[in-house]
Amino acid sequence: MSGEHHGTDATLAAQVRHVEALLEERGLVDPAELDRALEAFLARASPANGSRVVARAWLDAGFRARLLADGNTALVELGLSMGGGLQEQRLKVVENTADAHNVIVCTLCSCYPIALLGPSPTWYKSEAYRSRVVREPRAVLAEFGFDLDPAVAITVWDASAETRYLVLPRRPAGTHGLDERSLAALVTRNGLIGVAAV
Ligand code: FE
User: Fold this and answer.
1) Do residue 100 and residue 180 come from a single domain?
2) How far is it, in rounded angstroms, from Cα 33 to Cα 160?
3) Do 99 and 147 belong to one domain?
4) Catalytic site residue from 81, 111, 126, 182
5) What is the CATH number of the domain that holds 127?
6) Are 102 and 192 in contact (CB under 8 A)?
7) CA-to-CA distance for 125 and 16, rounded, in angstroms?
8) Which domain holds residue 175?
9) Segment 29-56, tens digit of pLDDT
10) How far does residue 56's CA lie from ligand 1's centre (Å)?
11) Is 131 tagged catalytic?
12) Does residue 198 sit within a domain?
């Protein structure tokens, strides 16, 4: 199964390069235009996007339900998307509750929701995180300074080339009355990965 995942990644990358080459060869696409599109995508990719999504979900139950049901469609409501390359990645948002916590990883490489979180931190790509968070998630969270209640179950989601995950943290107590912008400011990149409470 793991080999399959890697194979899929490599196959997809090869297919994308092949299509790019064909388009360029036929003069259908300007390589400089492709570079500009990629640069523009990276310039927009930031954890501020993920934080906005979470703040909106905390304030708007309808949006939250749509986000959990179909992440890609709900993102459009905020002017966001998972696009940036030739194919849009599927977004699955996983919600933390009083008794269930979620963490994301890519066990085989470094798949990550870049559009919503910006470039991934070095530790996310490390062999230590990728292998250990699956086997001993609670110990890994503790090393991030996050001591999760032992009664709370942890689910670790393994991202792939096609599917990316985003954690919807629990809204902190005492934040009643805060507006969307103030709520978004409480959300951290690590909270969106699941290695922090928020
Ligand atoms: Fe990966």
Assistant:
1) yes
2) 27
3) yes
4) 111
5) 3.90.330.10
6) no
7) 23
8) 45-193
9) 788 888 888 888 888 899 999 999 999 9
10) 28
11) no
12) no
